[in-house]
Every structure is written in structure tokens, then in C-alpha cells.
Design goal:
The complex is a heterodimer of chains A (426) and B (311).
Chain A (H helix, E strand, L loop, with lengths): L3 E10 L4 E10 L2 E7 L8 E4 L4 E4 L1 E6 L12 H10 L2 E6 L10 H14 L3 E4 L15 H6 L5 E2 L8 H14 L2 E4 L4 H4 L4 E2 L2 H6 L3 E2 L2 H17 L2 E4 L8 H9 L4 E6 H5 L21 H13 L4 E3 L7 H4 L16 H10 L5 H15 L15 E11 L18 E11 L2 E5 L2
Parallel strand pairs in A: 1-4, 1-5, 6-7, 7-8, 9-10, 10-13, 11-12, 13-14, 14-15
Antiparallel strand pairs in A: 1-2, 2-3, 5-16, 16-17, 17-18
Chain B lengths: L15 H18 L13 E6 L5 H12 L3 E6 L11 H11 L3 E6 L4 H8 L3 E7 L5 H15 L6 E5 L6 H12 L3 E5 L15 E3 L2 H4 L5 E4 L15 H8 L3 H4 L7 E3 L12 H4 L7 H26 L1
Helix pairs in contact in B: 1-5, 1-11, 2-11, 3-4, 5-6, 5-11
Amino acid sequence: MSNLIFTNARLINPEADTDSIGWLKVADGRIAALGEGAAPDADTQVVDCGGQCLAPGIVDIGVKVCEPGERHKESYKSAGLAAAAGGVTTIVTRPDTLPAVDTPETLEFATRRAQADAPVNVLPMAALTKGRKGREMTEIGFLQDAGAVAFTDCDHVVTNTKVFSRALTYTKSCGALVLAHPQEPGLSAGTAATSGKFAALRGLPAVSPMAERMGLDRDIALLEMTGAAYHADQITTARALPALKRAKRNGLDITAGTSIHHLTLNELDVSDYRTFFKIKPPLRSEDDRQAVIEAVRTGLIDTISSMHTPQDEESKRLPFEEAASGAVALETLLPAALRLYHSEQLDLPTLFRAMALNPAKRLSLESGRLSQGAPADLVLFDPDVPFVLDRFTLKSKSQNTPFDGQRMQGKVTATYVAGQEVYRRA
Amino acid sequence: MRFAHRHLLGIEHLSQSDITAILDLAETYVDLNRQSTKHSDVLSGLTQINMFFENSTRTQASFELAGKRLGADVMNMAMQASSIKKGETLIDTAMTLNAMHPDLLVVRHPHSGAVDLLAQKVNCAVLNAGDGRHEHPTQALLDALTIRRAKGRLHRLNIAICGDVAHSRVARSNLILLGKMENRIRLIGPPTLVPSQFAEFGAEIYDDMNEGLKDVDVVMMLRLQKERMDGGFIPSEREYYHRYGLDAAKLALAKSDAIVMHPGPMNRGVEIDGTLADDINRSVIQEQVEMGVAVRMAAMDLLARNVREAA
């Protein structure tokens, strides 16, 4: 294991909520020591950061890698390279593959592929119900033994409340975390936009933002019943926030995430039916976006994730209603998040609290923080360097990013996993 | 006169003067269509393809007739029966079409925005003949021409659009066009079919038809789009007719010279009383069909001038 010392670094420490110049020493893949000001003399390899930011590597909950089933859209190798280039040191994968990761055998296949090919940490999630069909729960215990860190049916809502309450009760006994997609599926079925003037003008079938709160309200009631550990994958509307706040105040084991796209784009970005902006849930109004940013600032929303969803050209080159949902974001997560830093809405420790510390804590990982003894999963980045994103430079096999052609600011310089450099910008 | 658009995809992109120009030119085609020899050569040598991904008899016939009267070579492709069934995507279809070198492409599609998408990929002028619940520009233009001829003007009128606004591309295009021409628009219908977001377009919304029809100059009825309804927007057709169907008693609340319009095909006894629809003193429904051909001739003529210029 290589030993390193980062000097002259702007240390972004979400745990201590500090942003200051200092040094950080790595030994045997872990953070051995760190401090402010000038570095102590050391006989190890020195990385002079030149005042650039050194932060804990991003822990991204909810990444879709399309193995098994659709390797042409994204493989563990391409996703791993994209993650490394984006400063993401741990990807927590979704089970919504073809077939779904719902048995220990498929999970083992995915894990094997990930270990062989991905340069970053890969932690798999498994389906909560067989085939994500919402009828029978999966072998939650076996899947946990095989390495599943959480259970989720992704964007499939378990509509049968009895099935969902039993699954929650069972996961609680295993000490497992459930990720759910709060949405009232009766209202959202067949829709492609958020109801409002824009959707009316474009003639798109639309869902009321209230559908998210209805889904969350139901899930919160079930948490009161079962006491399970629950993480809402994406809270994207202002209306859902008071319910989340109450549930937390009442002591339920609930956390919530949001996606980078809902934080940085709104419904008007769809413009003339641009399908790269079709995501699930659909982009919201500007008022919702602002409310969600504020909720991240106060910590009501715990995590920010990429919701990385690769789609090939064919599934996006269709009329808006027919086109597939989702966007790739592993490589654009950090530059997009830095928009909120440059607009002075969120500071860097807050961003890394939501992108690294909180997701790691929720999954009981040691990473996601700059503290002695933590794994040396680190991202070194320059928050100011401007660029125009060309989607064909992305390392993902699919290049369906809504940020194509947009001006962005902030690039990853290097990424380290357990003290090993896994990416360095050319 | 030069038309500043390559395609006619929606009313949203048109200015007041664009609209007036199309209507003025259409007037000349109304005259032509009433002569015994109804022929012009302005599209002679050009190829017009009508591509309908959704069933249509009236609109397709109107476009076909318009093209033929202007001397174009017209071909109809009924797409719902052919390649989409075989899995061909819209973009593939566009590529195939490009190889046939059409000059004018008339497209109807069941999904909003699909015609815009096609227009980005083909090398000819595209006319939107209706996309999902988005726009149906030639319908709004023919309605405008009908109103202008019946009322002598196309501004400062009180116009009621009644019925299934939510599912209607006709309503959207009319709302935009009549708004641009500075009319007062009322939307009348049950709140399940007239969502409150439409108030943001500057329209007044009424769920009581008797209130809404008071003193209007134009009553525009919409077809109840049963095929677009995926469950439970209205309790029953007879209750709908009772509350929102246009009959003589409700029409009596409008101005005494108010005209009655309907884009067709009508559901008689559901949204409009059959006798009223046929009343030549009030109903301009037949005139709308006539104006449809003229407006489509005008639109294709204007777009074709740009096509020839580019060639």
C-alpha cells in the first residue's frame, strides 16, 4: 500500500463542517492523520494540491449499471470509469436490471462482475419483492448474506400495502434498510410531466406534485406501524417536505434523498420535447426546486444522488411520451452540484454532507468523511475551472445527459479509492 | 409575401401578421374553390405526402384535396397500418421519407411533440395535422377564417370554447391563436376536462355553462374524445349532455347573433343537439369544412414558396 501526503489542500470536511487549507496523510489505504495549515515533514510521496479542494469521495445511492441484461447501455467497467472520473468512490447499485437482482445468485453474478471490472467500490442493493412485482418478498436474509446493502423495488411502488408492510416488518428484523420511491402510482401512471402551465401548453400527460406526498404519507404510516428503516429515494416537491419533517420529528427511522437533476433543472428545461430531460419523477417547477435546495441546506433532505440511468439513443429518439426515462449523471454529479455552490446556495461542506457523509452513514459505511482511520476514498477537484460539456466525452456507454452543451464549472482532478489513484485528469 | 417559417408546427410560433397573411391568402382560395374550374398550379411538380399515424378521414381528405387543387402530386400513407407495427421508429420513417424527396409532409401523430421531432429529421416542409393533445394549427386557422367571415373581424370578440379542453389539441391551438388576436376567451366544461392550469393562458374558466355562455359572440364546441379517456372523467354521457351539451335553451343565453362551431366529427346528443348543428342560421359547421380546404391550400402555398426558393 502506498503512503501519501496531500499538502496545500482545501480540505472539505462535512463532519466538522469546515472548509480550510490543510494537509492529509494516507497510510495503508486509510486516512492516517490530517490537520490545518502547513504539512509536517514526511518521507512519503507528496501530492501538492495547489489549493484545490480535497473532499471525501462521493457515495452515490441508486446508480443503475445495466448488468445483467443490457450491458450495451452500461457495464461495471464503464460505470466504474465514469464514477472514478466523477469523483464517485462508492456506487450503490440499483436492482432494476434485466432480470432484476432478486436472488442471491444474480447478486453474486453482479458482484463478481463489479469486482472484476470496476475501479471504485460497488455495493449492490437487491429487490425487495421478486421480479420487483410487489407480490412476494425476496430472500432478504440470504441476499443480505450475499452482500446486499439495502432493498428496493426502485421506481416500482409496492402498491399492495399488506405486502409492503410485511416486507418492512421482515427487513426490520434483519436490520436492513428499505429504499422506496414515494409516489401514488394511480396518479402517476402514464404521465410524462408535472402538471402545470408548461405541461398544459405542451399537451403532455401530467401528474400532480401531490402524488409524491400521497406516496410518502402512506409509507410514513407504514413506518409507524412497522418501525422499519426507510430511505425515500427522491423527494422532489415542496409539498412532501412537511410530511418528511413531521416523520423525522416523530422519531421514525426515515431519511430522504433527492436527485441532482431535480436540484439543478426545472420543468421548463424540457423545452421542445427534449427527451434527455425526461426523468422519473418528472422535472418539477422552479418553486419546488428552490424548496428542495433549501431542504438539503437544512439537512431535512439527507442525500443527493445521481440517479444515474443509462439509456441508449434508440430509447431516447422517440416522441416524448414514448421515450425512456432517466439520465446518466455519474460524471456530471459534482459539476452540477457545484452550480449550487457557485450560486451561493449551498457551501461545499453541506454538499459533501449530502453526497458523501450522509449516504455513508445511512449504509453504515466508514467512508464519506475526512477523519483519522476512515478509508482514504478521496476526490481532488478544482471547483472553478469552466468548461462546456460535450456528452461524447463521457465515459459511460450511454451519453443521455441533459447537460450536453451546457456551461459548467468545476472538474475532478484526481480520485482515490483506498489511497490508490483511480483517475487523474489528463 | 414571404412566410418566415420553414414548417407549420403550431400556432405558438406564429405572429399576428403571419396569421393574417395565411387568412388573407386563404380568402383567395375560397373564391377559387367556388368556381367551376378549381385548379391552380402553384404546387405543380412538388410532392406532398400525407402521413397519418392516427385515423382521420376529414383532415386527411381536406389536405389531399387542397394539394390536388394546387397541382401537387399527393400520396397518402396510413401509418398505423404499416411500419410502426413492424417496429420502425419515427426517425427511421423520417429517413425513409427523405429518400423519397417529398416537398411537403403532412403529419398526424397520437403523441404530443412527435411532429416536431419528425420535422427536425426530414428535409422538407412539415405541416402538423395534429399531434397528441398538443396542437392542430390548420384547424385553428380555419376556425379563425370562419369567425372572421361571419363576424367581420377577428379581435375583441367573446369566444366560448366548450367541452373536453384537456384532451383537445384543437382547443390549445384555438386558445393560442384567438389569444394572439386579442379576443376574450372562456373555457367551459366540467373541471375534470378543463384543468385550472388553463387560467394561466389568460382564459376565464366556467364550470357552469349557463354562466359561461352569457353574451358570447362565438360558441365553439369540442368533441368529447372518448378514445383519449382512460377512465372516469364524466359520470355519463347523458349527464354530460344535460350539463354541457349545447341546445337551443343554452344558446339563447349567448348573443342573438352568436355562431355555433364544431371541429367535427360530432357526437350528436352528447355535446351538441342535432337540430342545432344543422340550423343554417346559427351553425357554421359546414362553412368550417369549406374554410379548411382553403386554409390548407394557403398554408401549403406559403410553405412551398420557401421550398422553391431553397431549391
